[in-house]
Amino acid sequence: MNAPPSANAIDAMMERASQALASTEYFRAAELCLGALDLARRADDFGRMARICLPLQEARRWVRQEALDTGTVAVIARAEDLGDRPGPGCYLVQPPLIGVDARQIRQRAWAERIPVFVLCREPMTRDGQWPIVGVGERVARVRIDPPPGVVRWAEGDPGPRPMAGDRVTEAIHPDWFAAAGEALGDRAIVEAQASAEPGDPPGWLVDDFLDYLEACPEHEKFLQALAQAGRDAIGTTTPRDQRRRRGVGADPFGF
């Protein structure tokens, strides 16, 4: 039996992705994987979707590790803090910049083949935690303890009140940064899974995961969970006569 045209196109794209991985062209490999993932989803080809996640995970693992290996975490509160062209490394975006800015910074850097790992923090909460936020089609948000050296602003402190509600007085260690990224991705998995309702077509859960993909693009367990959702949907089709509901998150501070 001949493969459908969509399958042939996906396989050809993934062959190029494999060649790019072998040549250590990790950004190109990731771009091809994402293109193939989109084609596979349009065709309800969930088996291929699941298989595409592994090379995508490998490509993005390299980008993440290259950024972490620089050993630096730069705090970015203004576009000017980046300079004309950011170098490889980890970037923590903070107010007045927001999650969408962090996503744009990452996209621009990746388009220029610069290995960056970008996270965004929101203002400190009343209980002294930092909300870490990632923006995809949907927003993921998790609250964690800030790194050492963060001092909450208080009345009487010199200077105007920072929009972030605190001051970062010490260099942020890459280990904290990596852990923050893990926590965000773990939360995105929980939120994607919580979006499902009894009786939903399995393909809708795949879509729930895809909605969060760019909120935590480097997270390996998230890509593994997306692959599992794809495997669970093999052999099913997505109904075209039903409108997919989009689950409502329980985060009272969400958008």
Structure description:
Residues 248-255 have low confidence and may be disordered. The chain has one domain (72-255). α4 links the parallel β2 (89-93) and β3 (116-121). It has helices spanning 5-22, 26-42, 46-69, 99-111, 174-194, 202-212, 220-232, and strands at 73-76, 89-93, 116-121, 130-135, 139-144, 150-152, 166-168. The radius of gyration is 20 Å and the shape is globular. It is α/β, with parallel strands linked by helices. A five-stranded mixed sheet has the order 1-2-3-4-5, with helices on both faces. The chain has a two-stranded antiparallel sheet with strand order 6-7.
Quick structural overview:
The protein has helices at residues 5-22, 26-42, 46-69, 99-111, 174-194, 202-212, 220-232, and strands spanning 73-76, 89-93, 116-121, 130-135, 139-144, 150-152, 166-168. The chain has 255 residues and is α/β, with parallel strands linked by helices.
